[in-house]
Target: dCMP deaminase family protein
Amino acid sequence: MPGKRTDVISWDEFFMRAAVAASLRSKDPNTQVGACIADTNHRILSVGYNGTPRGLEDDEFPWGTAENPLYDKHNYVIHAEANAILNYRGSLKDMDGATVYVTLFPCHECAKTLVQAGIGEVVYLDDKYDGTEDNLISKNILDRCGVSWRQMSLAAE
Ligand SMILES: O=c1ccn([C@H]2C[C@H](O)[C@@H](COP(=O)(O)O)O2)c(=O)[nH]1
Ligand SMILES: [Zn+2]
Model:
């Protein structure tokens, strides 16, 4: 009898690759973010990426930053983590203790939202805003609220 395959990808890699796949849908020319929420039974609950709110045409959208807040993408884009939570159609109870896999370390607004949704762990790929005020606040929120965070990497193909 042939043995089973053993060189399968880990759960971490599986969920992070789902987050990366979601990020490929983002229209943001500067930073594409994907998020994948997996529960404690290794089930994917939801995925999301950074994009415009439904109804706001992302082809006509000004995807840059601007001094005038009216024309700055940051004031319009829904973040990947928020989209992943909002895309979920089940009970929020399912998110208790779940892990979010994100391609970018969550901002402080997302950190608050993740905490409030019951997420227990954040696994991220990139932390390109490490050390900024927003990033420090985010880490402070996660630490104080008992949400653990760790970085992982994906092997290049
Ligand atoms: O927690 C986060 C933080 C940021 N994003 C999104 C929002 C924007 O579309 C980009 C950031 O753009 P920059 O040009 O790098 O400022 O990333 C997110 O989805 N989640
Ligand atoms: Zn955010």
Observations:
- The CA atoms of residues 19 and 34 lie 5 Å apart.
- The first strand starts at residue 34 and ends at 38.
